[in-house]
Amino acid sequence: MSSKGPVIIITGTPGTGKSTHSQLLVDESPVPLKHINVGEWVKEKGWFEEFDEEWQSYTVDEDKLLDELEPVVAAGGVILDWHTCEAFPERWADLVVVLRCDHSQLWQRLEKRNYHLKKIQENNEAEIMQVVLEEARASYPPEIVVELKSDSMQDMEANIARIVEWITVWTKERAVNVET
């Protein structure tokens, strides 16, 4: 059997639960997975061009980011957790999970993170307009893009169970393909 695990992109508007889902998935996956919080990696490694004071966010050096991620992704068994997905090459992804959240809950989650009002409004509008979902649908084959609701703990538990089942099937299919 191949030891290379799947590459899963977990994306969504900030506050939809990407990092929590990713960490739970690492804990519950039937195959070893490495969680990469791409936004944190960018900050830690200095893969940004500048800090935008108005939006309180970094302008990412996508070329540097992708060059550095390439060998990690090639090894497989990784979850890429980021609020955007279109930067990642289509060939990288085995599954793209877009987390969605009711906009009033999202507003509360972002307030708890002390986001400034303009950033809360922008992210809330992006969620209402399905910006990340449309980005994923435009960037990857439809059969690998999955939209999951992330309003409650029950949603999160159901989502993790669903993704674990997908990993199990994906792994079995790869084992069969390797043997034949």
UniProtKB/TrEMBL annotation:
Gene3D superfamilies: P-loop containing nucleotide triphosphate hydrolases. It is found in: Cytoplasm; Nucleus. GO terms for molecular function: AMP kinase activity; ATP binding; ATP hydrolysis activity. Belongs to the adenylate kinase family. AK6 subfamily. Its EC number is 2.7.4.3. GO terms for biological process: ribosomal small subunit biogenesis; rRNA processing. Interacts with small ribosomal subunit protein uS11. Not a structural component of 43S pre-ribosomes, but transiently interacts with them by binding to uS11. It catalyses: AMP + ATP = 2 ADP; ATP + H2O = ADP + phosphate + H(+). Residues 37-60 are annotated as: NMPbind. The keyword Nucleus applies. One of its GO terms (cellular component) is nucleus. It holds the Pfam family AAA_18. It is an enzyme of class 2 (transferase). It comes from Roridomyces roridus. This is Adenylate kinase isoenzyme 6 homolog. Residues 112-122 are annotated as: LID. SUPFAM superfamilies: P-loop containing nucleoside triphosphate hydrolases (SSF52540).
